[in-house]
Amino acid sequence: MSQTVKIYPQNPSEREIAKVVKVLENDGVIIYPTDGVYAFGALLKSTKAVEKLRSLSGRDEKLLTIVCSDISMVDKFARIDNAQFKTLKRNTPGAFTFILEPSSKVPDKALSGRKTVGVRIPDNQIPLAIIERLGFPLATASVKDDDEVVEYTTDPELIAERYMQSVDLVIDGGYGSLVPTTLVDLTGDEPEVLREGGGELK
Known about the structure:
eleven-stranded mixed beta sheet
């Protein structure tokens, strides 16, 4: 049975953030708000939690995204050159998922044999505060049904109702969006937009 905590994005409560961090450090899986749709989150270095997140989200073989608090954290978990760094600097925090080559710091379990990793720095103070406190990224996947974002996924109360038995904690950070992130591949010579979404690439 999961617990629900209310956190305000404008001024996240340190006490509530600490509660969330404790759950994550104990191999828990949470649902949290981003600057797009709500998402499942697990501590990237927790194999147990990442496996649970994969089965919950149906992302067994698909690209998992890692969520960082800033570019210096991205730099530890992905290989970025000067051009990629400039693109990230211009567009983060924001509603983007950038595809990059992972560094050796990303656990093999999280990559599941893939040679690339999705990276996010969301424009929402709640996940940024959690990750800063953790000092480590979250593995994450959107709360969706069969790759379709459906209406209930914007309402934290309905999300909590639906996933009460499956996750350890749900953060109510207000209504979410139905718009996914803009997916940008940075592994080629030029940035390539693979999916249009909430972010407009600069």
